[in-house]
From TrEMBL:
It is a peripheral membrane protein. InterPro entries: ATP_synth_OSCP/delta_N_sf, ATPase_OSCP/d_CS, ATPase_OSCP/dsu. GO terms for cellular component: plasma membrane; proton-transporting ATP synthase complex. Keywords: ATP synthesis, Cell membrane, CF(1), Hydrogen ion transport, Ion transport, Membrane, Transport. The keyword Ion transport applies. This is ATP synthase subunit delta. Signal peptide: none annotated. One of its GO terms (molecular function) is proton-transporting ATP synthase activity, rotational mechanism. It holds the Pfam family OSCP. This protein is part of the stalk that links CF(0) to CF(1). It either transmits conformational changes from CF(0) to CF(1) or is implicated in proton conduction. F(1)F(0) ATP synthase produces ATP from ADP in the presence of a proton or sodium gradient. F-type ATPases consist of two structural domains, F(1) containing the extramembraneous catalytic core and F(0) containing the membrane proton channel, linked together by a central stalk and a peripheral stalk. During catalysis, ATP synthesis in the catalytic domain of F(1) is coupled via a rotary mechanism of the central stalk subunits to proton translocation.
Length: 277
């Protein structure tokens, strides 16, 4: 997304945050806006001429707003219409950026709902654990990644797996992610989990350990990493017994391999190097 579009998105986000914060029922309004923004995106995906027109900076803001409200004004509630007005009055670098901005705003609305419900951290963990599950369930992931399958078909498949097992905001976000692939299901879900961590003011440390970490271990690890990186950390954990012991920690593009498997591999490499001389 280009700089102008990021500015446009952030301007609308300020209005979104204020609208939800000052509404009478923050959770319900956030859920409604998020859900309806995704319905708008669905329609824009089906209608390229509409998508191009809404992002056409050769038209003035009133014209762009008129187009959006003509199409969606009677299909969405007033809070969502207010966000669409704000979107139309901003200048976007391209129709692609406008669509990306709407997806981001829809996700943000749902996450603000989770925050006001007091379940934001739970949503973050559930999204990450779902990405871990898909990483393990290769057949399911292949079905969800199938580009020939329709969005509703893939959402229905995932809904059958997670229904009743996660919070309503996790379910809503996961189904939207699966229906709008950017890379692959595993990475796309992990990316939204990272977005949640960022909303909470934290960076993500992805920790793979030979055994499950308890709460005190996670807290101690977070403290050490915060000292190293100078920022609060959200610890996303998964278990891989093949590590034999210890753990692998990934923060951004950095990796710290303190696993027994990694140590043995390095030892074998050192011995091989010595024998080569």
């Amino acid at each position: 997304m280009k700089a102008a579009s990021r500015e446009a998105r952030n301007n609308v986000a300020e209005k979104l945050d204020e609208l939800i914060r000052t509404s009478g029922d923050t959770v319900a309004v956030a859920a409604q806006i998020g859900t309806e923004l995704f319905l708008v995106v669905d329609q824009l995906d089906l209608d390229r001429s509409l998508r191009v027109a809404v992002a056409d900076n050769a038209l003035d803001a009133d014209q762009r707003e008129g187009i959006l409200l003509t199409v969606f004004g009677e299909k969405v509630a007033e809070p969502t219409a207010q966000i669409l007005r704000a979107v139309a009055r901003e200048e976007w670098s391209s129709s692609r950026d406008l669509r990306t901005g709407l997806v981001w705003l829809g996700r943000r609305a749902l996450l603000l709902g989770a925050e006001n419900q007091g379940t934001l951290e739970e949503v973050e963990d559930e999204l990450f654990q779902l990405s871990v599950l898909l990483e393990q369930e290769k057949q399911l992931t292949q079905l969800l990644a199938d580009r020939t399958a329709g969005a509703q078909q893939k959402r229905g498949l995932l809904a059958n797996v997670i229904y009743g097992k996660v919070t309503m905001f996790t379910e809503a976000l996961a189904l939207q992610v699966i229906g709008r692939p950017e890379h692959n299901p595993v990475d796309d879900l992990a990316a939204v989990a990272a977005l949640v961590a960022d909303m909470r003011g934290k960076a993500v440390a992805r920790v793979t350990s030979a055994e499950a970490l308890d709460a005190s271990q996670r807290e101690a690890l977070a403290g050490k990493l915060e000292t190293i990186y100078g920022r609060e950390m959200a610890i996303h954990t998964e278990v891989d017994p093949s590590l034999l012991g210890g753990m692998i920690i990934r923060v951004g593009h950095e990796e710290i391999d303190g696993s027994t498997r990694g140590k043995l591999a390095r030892l074998r490499a050192d011995l091989a190097a010595e024998m080569a001389y």
